[in-house]
Amino acid sequence: MNDDLIYEKRDHTAFLTLNRESRRNAISQDMITAFLDYLDTAHGDDTVRAVCITGAGEKIFCSGADLGSTLAKGEDRLTGPRNYARLLKEMAAFGKPLVARVNGACLAGGIGFMLSCDIVISRDDIYFQTPEVNVGIFPMMVGALLFKNVTPKKAMDMVLTGRKIRAPEAEQMGLITRAVTPAHLDEEVQTTLDLLKRKSPIGMRLGKEAFYRAGDMPFESAVDFLCEALGRVISTQDAMEGMKAFMEKREPRFTGK
Which one, of 89, 91, 125, 85, lies nearest residue 109 by Cα? Predict the structure, then answer.
């Protein structure tokens, strides 16, 4: 595998680090290929309960697509975007919790990486930006995620002006889960990962799938769909173990079945 993306597994968590610090952690096609492969690896490893995504260094989480690299190869202009779109879809359908550790500024396609995660924890001294409009482009695929996370007016403000959104504002508008001081970033991320690793893998997988599918349904259809989804969850061995452990006042021992 290439060095653009580093995969490590520690204590039931797979860590994916965007490793192009000298290029502001820009997204290369090799990175996307590695990302897809590593998601498959994490998905197939029953000991992995969550995946944490971050960037190398302390300045940039991800600056978006490496346009110069793609153009230099003379590829079809949509090859890179199509590969990126495939990755966003794979991340959205991923059956384990995805946590973004945003340790630096997050721009353009990096916003898509971040918003594809279930939980986003960032430093409170950084900014988020969709600057594509400044060079005559538009954050098309990112928009599909942006409009699911913030109100249309906030989304249009971002994509039309290209202005920098500071972390406190990003938290207020729902772009991220929470912003913490740089000194507390790792502690907050680790606390979240510790909570996730103690939960039922199958319960989280079925729950994630159900919630995301119900998100585009009318209210009554969503309630009926989620009622049926609850039936699938409570039929699992983990659900029975969880309820038994609650009655016995002990920690549950989940197996993912």
Answer: 85
Instruction: Give the chain's count of helices (H) and strands (E).
Output: 11, 10
pLDDT at 68 over 80: no
Those residues whose C-beta lies under 8 Å from the C-beta of residue 118, and which sit 6 or more positions away, are: 97, 98, 99, 208
Q: What CATH number has the domain bearing residue 221?
A: 1.10.12
Could you tell me the residue range of the domain that residue 226 belongs to? 201-247
Q: What b/e sequence results for 171-206 when a residue is b if at least 16 CB atoms lie within 10 Å of its CB, and e otherwise?
A: bebebbbebbeeeebeebbeebbeebbebbbbbbbb
- Strand segments, DSSP code E, in the chain are 5-10, 13-18, 50-55, 60-62, 98-102, 105-107, 119-123, 127-129, 165-166, 178-180
Confidence of residue 74 (pLDDT cuts 50, 70, 90): low
Residue with tokens 């103690």: 198
- Six-digit token pair at 43? 């998905």
CATH number (domain holding residue 62): 3.90.226.10
Q: What is the pLDDT of residue 79?
A: 83
- 124 with 59, same domain: the answer is yes
* Per-residue pLDDT, 80: 81
* 241 plus 156 within the same structural domain: no
Query: Does residue 253 belong to any structural domain of this protein?
Result: no
Closest CA to 106 of 12, 170, 190: 170
257 in a structural domain: no
For residue 69, the model assigns a pLDDT of: 57
Distance between CA atoms of 62 and 103, rounded to whole angstroms?
Answer: 9
β-strands 105-107, 127-129: how paired? parallel
* Whether residue 25 sits in one domain with residue 118: yes
